[in-house]
Every structure is written in structure tokens, then in C-alpha cells.
Amino acid sequence: MSADLDWWRTAVVYEVYPRSLRDADGDGVGDLEGVRQALPYLHSLGVDALWFTPWYVSPFADGGYDVADYRAIDPRLGSLADAERLIADARDHGIRTIVDIVPNHVSSAHRWFREALAAEPGSDARARFWFRAGSGPDGGEPPTHWRNNFAGPTWTRTTDREGLPGEWYLHLFDPAQPDLDWRHPDVGKEHEEILRFWFDRGVAGVRVDSAAHIMKDPSLPEDDGSHAPGAHPNLDRDEVHPVYRRWREIADGYDEPRVLVGEVWLPDAERFSRYLDREMHTAFNFDLMTRGWDAAGFRDSIDTMRVAHARVGAPCTWVLSNHDVTRPVTRYGRADTSFAFERKAWGVPTDLALGTRRARAAALLTAALPGSLYLYQGDELGLPEVEDLPRDALEDPMYLRSGGENPGRDGCRVPIPWAGEDPPFGFSHAGVRPWLPQPPAWRELSIERQSRDPDSMLSLYRRALAVRRSSADLRTGGFSWVELSSGVCAFRRGSLVSITVFDGEPVPLPSAWEIVLSSDPRIPAGCGDAAARPRPIPTDTTVWVRDPAGSIPAVPETNNMRARNGATSLRG
Fold this sequence. Notes:
With 572 residues, this protein is of the alpha/beta class. It is built from 16 helices and 20 strands. The chain has helices at 32-37, 39-45, 80-92, 111-118, 124-127, 185-199, 240-252, 269-274, 286-290, 295-310, 328-331, 352-367, 397-401, 447-451, 457-470, 472-476, and strands spanning 12-16, 49-52, 56-57, 69-73, 96-101, 131-132, 155-159, 165-170, 205-208, 259-262, 282-283, 317-319, 372-376, 480-482, 488-493, 496-501, 507-509, 514-518, 535-537, 541-546. Strand 15 and strand 16 form a beta hairpin. Helix 6 (185-199) runs parallel beside helix 7 and helix 12 packs parallel to helix 15.
């Protein structure tokens, strides 16, 4: 394990959804022992850290993001001893561990919330949450009509001891996830102790879920869109920042400083960057992930986020998907290749062959960008979204709370295939039915089968991450755009140039240039022949080339933060 304290600036982090990586005990649900057994595979893939979605005690009303006890592992996944062993064994493989913290809310099964329901209105137990009387003459209307992040109302009414309607409580997500009131001193104290609990057990950092949501306006105004920046009723309020600056002090207080990674969904890049100013070390760049397959859009997103991060000296964090988002292979094969939760729908056609080509190209493009890279389990296999799961198998509250209109997120959480010809494809013991069914066609996408295929998605990821790890250009090299044509996104990192052709005519690649790696297996790596004819880079393809002589023109640094429409031909 490297002693580099800035490892997180360039790390490749693999997101583990524990229920779906590997099942060691044969109950159909992935577990921590299964992850521990997968460490050799993860090491061979070339990742630097694992980020675990919540593994704590939970009713799993929202995939574990409804935490009932942060100091214990859910028994379906293992035990605290299993977690400690996994953290230590991963470290022995050169892999650090990042765990999830959900500060906005807890589970309705949490001890605090059960105490609050049993207490009287106005009690200290209820003051840890947002309990309020209803509006209207009989209190029958919710206190506000704020938007719920899933669907449906944001307030649920309680019943008092006499069985009569009582106060309402706030939940910006599911009713099983009551929001905490961060003005209560117990809330901040408890979360600081949770951080230390896991830092002391060797985790390298925490990912902070819904980081911008924790503070609310106590006057509970309606969200009419007229609020000033930092004064939204329940999102990105200025009061959040002292909380995370205190967390940063705790993280930096360890001999090997721990890392804070923020989940910050904000459209304003300047507001986003504030979470990186002496607060989070990094924050997910969701802007690129939600963009459509378009050269100008990708370039604009890369520029926007580089500027936002440079303002506070933080590295960018690049990500193509996660446990909430339609998988790239499916998303990039659609007519609308962008992503938005509100646009998820049933029956949207996709071209998986096209989506796979684009996902391969996107994988190389993002792996060449400066900063850290996050990879969601199964994307290295090119797994598509599973869009025909039986309705009675769906668990996601996005599906349940929308009355079935929204397909939800279960389709990207299906257990991954390891080996064999039939389900569960090595995910669990033979004949065991996984908690979400796997498509029979996934036999073609198993780790075993792809490991034997030098042209597979898995082989591409392994080579890309190996080059990224070994290349000084990709670890520490600068960044400058290369102007080719309007349908191309190309940039230089030292002597390495990444070229992605999104659309338009194929781009001729002079034969003398050394090809380091290509997303198209028809374009082999190696040095070319200067006397040969130029080779075309087809659309939906990324190629990494070595250009130590600097023959590929770069944009001057003064113009380097904005895409321009000019083009420079590679010909001649």
C-alpha cells in the first residue's frame, strides 16, 4: 500500500453494491464475505479503493440508505467482525475502503425515531427531527408542499396515543427515511462519533450521501423559486458548510488523513465548488454523467468542472454511472442519450450494440482525464440495464412511490455474473435464486468468459487502468485541448493524446503515430509505419496515441477552458 497521502487525487474507485457483488453464504443476497473473496479479481482489475453503499443495519426500504444503526452490519450482509476483516484484507491487496454516511436522514426503525414517535409533541426526542403541526383549520394539510426526491408527498402524519391524527414529520425521500434536524446538538455529535468509529477501524474515507440537503429553513417557506442562492428551503443552504468543515478537521486529524467524498447534485458550478473549499476532498461530477453523447456537450462539461475544481484546488471526480443511474450500455444506445430521473420510463428502445461501442469509448475518454475515476460494479463487464424484471421483484421506492410509473433503479442493481452457463452465474451457490433475477444472456458477459476474450469490455478496462497506473502522463501530466473537428473531443496529457470521435466523418490517424489503446478492437495497439496510408478512427471510438514530438496541435492555454468551433485537420 502506497504511503502517498494524496492517493485520492488520482485514484480509481470501484463502487460496491454489496447485495449484488457476490454471495458467499448462499442465501441469494451478496455479502461482505463475498466481497472479500472477490478481492483478487478487484486487485487484478486495477482499482485503488472500494466505495461501499450502506452495509449497516437497515430495513432496506431504500437499498440500505435508511440506516437504523451505523455501528453494526446488517446481518444479511455479515457482521462487524466481517467488515473489519474485509477492510484489513483489502488493504493487504493494496485497496482502500470508503463507506457511506447518510446525514440527511435515518431509518424509521432507528432508535431515535422510535423514541420520537413515543414522545409528546415539543419533546427533545422529537426535536431531533422535523415534527410539525399541519396546516389548515384542522391540521389536515401538510406543513409545506415541497418536492419529494422520489415521488409523492414530503410529509407523513403520525397518530397519537389515543389513535387520533397527530403531528407531521418531514422526509425528503421515503416515509421510512425521516429527515434529521441538524440544529439539534445531538445530531452533529452523533455523526462526528460515527466518523471516528469507522475511521478508527481503518476505512480511508466516507462518501457523504445527499450532502446538500441536511439544512432546512426553520420557517418552512414554500419553494416558489424566488429564493436567493444559499437560501433554498431545503437544498444547498449556506448553513451546511460549517458542518462539513468540522468533518474535514476530523478527517485531517488522522496520521493518514481520511477522505470525504460528497454526493452533491447541484446545477450551479460555483455553488458546487463551495463544498470543496476546506470541506470535501472530492465531490462526484454528475454533470458529465448526465450529458448526452455529444462532443460539444462533453467538452463543455469537462471545461465547466475543471474550472469549478481549479477554483478551490480540488481534483475532478469522473463517473459514468452508479447504483442510481441507467447503465451506460443502455443509456448510450437510446435516441436520447442524456440522463434525468424524471425522464425514466418504461419501454424506451435502445440499440445495445451502439450503446456498447459508445460505452467503450466513454470508458477510455474518462480514464484519460485528470483527477479520480469512479467505476460502478458491472460497468467493466458492459452489463446493460435490466428492464424486464418482474414487477413483483422490484423494491426501489422510486418505482413504488410513483405508482409504478417510474421503472426505478433496480435494473442497474442486478447481481453480476461471474462464471457458468446458467443463473446465478457464480454469484451465489448453484441453483440459488438471486434477490433480483439475472438475464440468461448474461452468460456471454461473465467475468470468466470475458477474461478469456482479449477484445472484451473487461479486457479493455484492465488495459486502460494498467496504462493509467503506469503512465506518468496520465498520473501527473497537464491537460490541453486538441482541436480537430466539431464532432471530436480530443485532449493532450503530456505526450499522450486521447481522441474520441462522436459523430461525423472518421478521423484519419497518421500511420506513424503509436497507438497505445483503442476502444475499437479493430484498431490494434503498436507503432505504425510512416509509409503506410492513414488509418481512420471511426465514429463512437476513442483512441489513445503517443505523440512525444507534439505534432498534434494543442489549443493555447489562454483559450484552453472553453471549447471553440475552429478545426485543425490531421491531414498533412
